[in-house]
């Protein structure tokens, strides 16, 4: 399998604090790759380094074979990344449908755009809310809408930062189904998550971060069976 | 054809047949107005229409893009003085005066491009964007205020300090072998035509893909960048367009009165566009245009009795807007008359909110 995303000795320091150091991460085309770790492990920082909203202190980010370390976020998006941040950020005053249009108009127009929009609304189960402002959707629906906007770009790599944060168990389960369906259609994903039930539902490969470094890497079964992973999650009272 | 379709869309109120019927009726009244009024009043109305262009520019920047510019008057003044400098030195007449107006707008647009570039790419955002643009206009007012001496001149054009620059020619339009001096009725029709074209053009712009991105930036600049848009480029374009409309106002004003004073960039003047647009409804071009015109008409009527009272009233109106109808009175009334508002919003937004979030990336 070819790597769509690679980081080489990636590091980020905030003053004296090193949030992420020497991370070599590889995401293969077609997989759902989960990034897990206890609070403060550096997951979100690593995510932002990949998305380009943080500039790294050391190392490189390679995306589809190109060094994008110095590229701005929108340039990475132009090259096929798409990002869903942890806190839902939708265009609150704009209707749900228009939220999707802003994303869809990058790739299509006219009837094709309309068709795509209807397909996405259906996929997100937001057909009935198409004309309502996104700001009045429930938290879970806003998360879905944002996933929909990210997906609308037809990305080669979808980055999701805790897509189920603040969701009910039912919503979490549905989100997992959505993610698996998108993956089945060929979308590669890097998902930051600390809800292990959810990780079990979706993950194919896992990278465990601990204290800013890669602690373990491997298939879902091997990682779950790894007693050291259990220890950093449970042994120090960081249970989730 | 597809351009015309964009006259209607999610970013403008008034997309129905009823609206456009009313629009055509208003336009007909505006076209017939000079026939039933005396040229002095008509010239006055032209003067009011000139300022609505500044307001439309601010609506685009503040209401649509979320950039709270307090500096519309800076570009108004720069264009006014530029028109004076260029036209006086060229001793312009005829069609040349129109080229001088274009030149003046180009100077101000270039200034907007430079200032906007440093602000937007320097990541100055929110209230600081307002503060810097405000400081810019005040600095310009102070600078031109101290240009009384004869050494302050460019060629034949003297700046004259507080008294302002005078002696520039009015606009002249070549017309079948003759020239029409743009004053009174002629100026009125000229400005009305410009306003019509710009209003319709802005409607197309905000309802286009470009406009979709502008309102997305207003709502959430980071989310917009995450969709692959170079947010700062869009902000800069919106800033230059909005500022250039103020420049057009300034050029027209200067040619109208053959006069441009530093006070046109001072504090009370700089606050006016904010009040017009906030009162009217910054998030809609039509509300902005109608509200601004009505406010100016009222302001001018009261100014005849007392300029101080007129200013106090303006401040009071801003206060009322912020407290009662943060999205703007004209906007609010139009919506509650269900004049076609398609957006059901969660509730009133604080008037300075979009400004406080401002451009960032």
Automatic annotation (TrEMBL), chain A:
<dbReference type="InterPro" id="IPR051120">
    <property type="entry name" value="ABC_AA/LPS_Transport"/>
</dbReference>
<dbReference type="InterPro" id="IPR003439">
    <property type="entry name" value="ABC_transporter-like_ATP-bd"/>
</dbReference>
<dbReference type="GO" id="GO:0016887">
    <property type="term" value="F:ATP hydrolysis activity"/>
</dbReference>
<keyword id="KW-0067">ATP-binding</keyword>
<keyword id="KW-0813">Transport</keyword>
<dbReference type="InterPro" id="IPR027417">
    <property type="entry name" value="P-loop_NTPase"/>
</dbReference>
<dbReference type="GO" id="GO:0005886">
    <property type="term" value="C:plasma membrane"/>
</dbReference>
<dbReference type="InterPro" id="IPR003593">
    <property type="entry name" value="AAA+_ATPase"/>
</dbReference>
<dbReference type="Pfam" id="PF00005">
    <property type="entry name" value="ABC_tran"/>
</dbReference>
<keyword id="KW-0547">Nucleotide-binding</keyword>
<feature type="domain" description="ABC transporter">
    <location>
        <begin position="5"/>
        <end position="236"/>
    </location>
</feature>
<protein>
    <submittedName>
        <fullName>ABC transporter ATP-binding protein</fullName>
    </submittedName>
</protein>
<dbReference type="GO" id="GO:0005524">
    <property type="term" value="F:ATP binding"/>
</dbReference>
């Amino acid at each position: 399998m070819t790597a769509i995303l690679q980081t080489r000795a990636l590091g980020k320091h905030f003053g004296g604090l090193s949030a992420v150091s020497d991370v070599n991460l590889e995401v293969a085309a077609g997989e759902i790759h989960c990034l897990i770790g206890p609070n403060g492990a550096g997951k979100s920082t690593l995510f932002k380094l990949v998305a380009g909203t943080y500039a790294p202190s050391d190392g490189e980010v390679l995306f589809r074979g190109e060094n994008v370390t110095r590229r701005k976020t929108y340039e990475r998006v132009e090259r096929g990344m798409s990002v869903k941040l942890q806190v839902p950020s939708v265009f609150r005053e704009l209707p749900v449908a228009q939220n999707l249009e802003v994303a869809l108009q990058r790739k299509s127009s006219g009837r094709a755009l309309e068709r795509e929009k209807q397909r996405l609304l259906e996929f997100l189960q937001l057909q009935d809310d198409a004309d309502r402002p996104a700001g009045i959707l429930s938290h879970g629906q806003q998360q879905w809408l944002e996933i929909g906007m990210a997906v609308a770009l037809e990305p080669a790599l979808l980055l999701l930062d805790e897509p189920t944060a603040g969701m009910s168990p039912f919503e979490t389960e549905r989100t997992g189904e959505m993610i698996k369906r998108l993956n089945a259609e060929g979308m590669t994903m890097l998902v930051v998550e600390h809800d292990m039930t959810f990780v079990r539902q979706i993950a194919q490969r896992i990278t465990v971060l601990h204290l800013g470094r890669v602690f373990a890497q491997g298939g879902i079964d091997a990682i779950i069976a790894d007693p050291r992973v259990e220890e950093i999650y449970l042994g120090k009272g960081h249970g989730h | 054809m597809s351009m015309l379709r964009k006259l209607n869309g999610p970013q403008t109120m008034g997309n129905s047949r009823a609206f456009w019927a009313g629009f055509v009726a208003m336009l007909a009244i505006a076209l017939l107005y000079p026939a039933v009024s005396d040229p002095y009043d008509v010239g006055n109305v032209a003067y009011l229409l000139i300022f609505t262009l500044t307001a439309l520019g601010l609506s685009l920047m503040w209401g649509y893009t979320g950039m709270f510019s307090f500096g519309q008057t800076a570009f108004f003044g720069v264009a006014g003085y530029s028109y004076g400098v260029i036209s006086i030195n060229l001793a312009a007449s005829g069609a040349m005066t129109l080229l001088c107006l274009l030149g003046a707008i180009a100077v101000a647009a270039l200034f907007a491009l430079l200032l906007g570039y440093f602000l937007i790419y320097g990541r100055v955002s929110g209230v600081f964007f307002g503060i810097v643009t405000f400081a810019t206009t005040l600095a310009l007012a102070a600078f031109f205020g101290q240009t009384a001496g004869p050494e302050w001149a460019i060629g034949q054009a003297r700046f004259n300090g507080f008294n302002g620059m005078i002696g520039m020619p009015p606009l002249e339009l070549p017309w079948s072998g003759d020239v029409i001096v743009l004053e009174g009725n002629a100026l009125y029709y000229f400005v009305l035509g410009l306003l019509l074209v710009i209003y319709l053009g802005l409607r197309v712009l905000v309802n286009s893909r470009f406009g979709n991105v502008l309102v997305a930036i207003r709502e959430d600049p980071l989310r917009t960048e995450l969709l692959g848009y170079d947010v700062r480029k869009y902000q800069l374009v919106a800033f230059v367009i909005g500022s250039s409309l103020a420049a057009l106002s300034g050029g027209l004003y200067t040619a109208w009165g053959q006069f441009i004073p530093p006070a046109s960039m001072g504090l009370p003047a700089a606050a006016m566009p904010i009040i017009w647009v906030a009162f009217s409804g910054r998030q809609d071009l039509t509300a902005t245009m109608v509200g601004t015109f009505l406010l100016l008409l009222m302001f001018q009527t009261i100014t005849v009795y007392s300029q101080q009272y007129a200013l106090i009233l303006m401040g009071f109106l801003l206060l009322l807007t912020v407290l009662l109808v943060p999205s703007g009175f004209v906007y609010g009334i139009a919506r509650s008359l269900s004049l076609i508002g398609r957006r059901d919003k969660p509730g009133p937004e604080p008037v300075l909110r979009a400004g406080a979030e401002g451009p960032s990336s």
